Amino acid sequence: MLTLTQRNSPNPDALVSFTLALSAEDRTKSRHRFEMEDGQVVSLCLPRGTVLRDGDLLHSESDRLVRIIAKPEPVFTVTAQTPLDLLKAAYHLGNRHVPLEITHTYLRLSPDPVLRSMLEQLGLNVVEAILPFQPELGAYGNHAH
Questions:
Q1: pTM of this prediction?
Q2: Which strand (E) or helix (H) includes residue 109?
């Protein structure tokens, strides 16, 4: 068993022992156990409220470096004809406290048929795919960067 206890800033050149692909939801859990493909068990032991981001590095008790990657998962990617339409969509989704990835050109969220219908009624384009999902941490999120 490997217990991950310390978090380091992302460094794309760091020599890591292995990578751990986690969904957006799994990256919000401070205590979690994962079984690797080789059967090894990894236990996360992080400060409460920690949200892991794609590229984060964790340092283990046994001096191993582990890179966290955003695991591709089912998502809706929302695009609009105008930036204002995209802002309106973000407003409506935020009103529903939906975890949301926000960029200049698209919004991304977990699939939900009710939300898809609402977004399409607002004139937005909604495409379902399996992609990494990086929702915003929120105003009071635990930012590592």
A1: 0.81
A2: strand 107-109
In the predicted model, what is the mean pLDDT of residues 126-142?
84
Tell me whether domains 2-70 and 73-131 share a fold: no
Distance, CA of 56 to CA of 12 (rounded, Å): 9
Beta sheet of 2-8, edge-to-edge order? 18-22, 65-70, 57-60, 2-8, 41-45, 31-35
> Residues with Cβ < 8 Å from 63, sequence gap 6 or more?
none
Domain boundaries, the chain: 2-70, 73-131
**DSSP 8-state secondary structure symbol assigned to residue 123:** T
3-class DSSP state for residue 74? strand
Distance CA 23, CA 87 (A): 26
**What pLDDT does 144 receive?**
45
Q: Which fold has domain 73-131?
A: Alpha-Beta Plaits (3.30.70)
**CATH number given to 2-70:** 2.60.260.20
Helix (H, G, I), strand (E, B) or coil at 5: strand
Predicted confidence (pLDDT) per residue in 64-116, tens digit = 888 899 999 999 999 999 999 999 999 999 999 999 999 999 999 999 999 99
**Token pair in block for residue 14:** 């760091």
